[in-house]
């Protein structure tokens, strides 16, 4: 797979944090002691290190991590899954979106997580590996993540599952509560409600593969997190309490952008690095 770009640039991170904290440009410029012109330039994508670091401190962002993102100085080291895991990156309108497949090599039972814009390649993998798709788990129901749900469910007859808090417009869809447990052969899947970006945003914590795996939708991205103008504080708290407390070697499989790891995000994600 081609190298997937990091989802957000440094100005995206600034804007998400500022919007979530409900701080106006005037307030931010005053608190950070920067000019309105310099703040506007940075928010527009101009790299001015002293301004970026000043602004970061007043948006509860890690100054060094934000500066590194501005200079494109870091890209997450990609974990290796020899077998039992596949990532799909498809184009939806003006963005790309991820979906995932896991399977147990003994039973050949599989589970999908979202569909992205197209499930074509996922269906090819299921056929090539002779896998039986038992479940389709939905992180959240924003259009880009479930664009091909009808097709995937129809062609595989797999059960569709989503959080009891997330509206799902799919016939026969089933819902789960937080801390529900599923088994895909010898693989275990636990549900964590990391809501904020959507009402029922769910992270699926998978064990039994080469690495512990958190398929987290738009909860966390490499160097960023999903935006939420109304529930930013809730999403941030859920990320801190439910994701950042997982084992440090946990692989983060986000809804957009490249794979990363919890250890790397604690060091390089401006929202969590200090």
Helix-strand layout with pairing:
Blueprint: H1 10-21, H2 25-32, H3 36-43, H4 49-57, H5 63-70, E1 85-92, E2 95-103, E3 109-113, H6 120-128, E4 132-137, H7 149-156, E5 159-163, E6 174-176, E7 181-184, E8 187-193, E9 202-207, E10 213-217, E11 220-221, E12 224-225, H8 232-243, E13 251-254, E14 260-261, H9 262-268
Parallel strand pairs: 3-4, 4-5, 5-6, 10-13
Antiparallel strand pairs: 1-2, 2-3, 7-8, 8-9, 9-10, 11-12, 13-14
Helix pairs in contact: 2-4, 4-5
Tell me about the largest β-sheet.
6 strands, mixed
Global geometry? elongated
In which range does the helix fraction lie? 25-40%
Name the CATH superfamily assignment of the largest domain: Ribonuclease Z/Hydroxyacylglutathione hydrolase-like
- Compute the CA-based radius of gyration: 19 Å
Oligomer: single chain
- CATH top level of the largest domain is Alpha Beta
Total helices: the number is 9
List how many beta strands DSSP finds.
Answer: 14
Low-confidence stretches: none
Rounded average pLDDT: 96
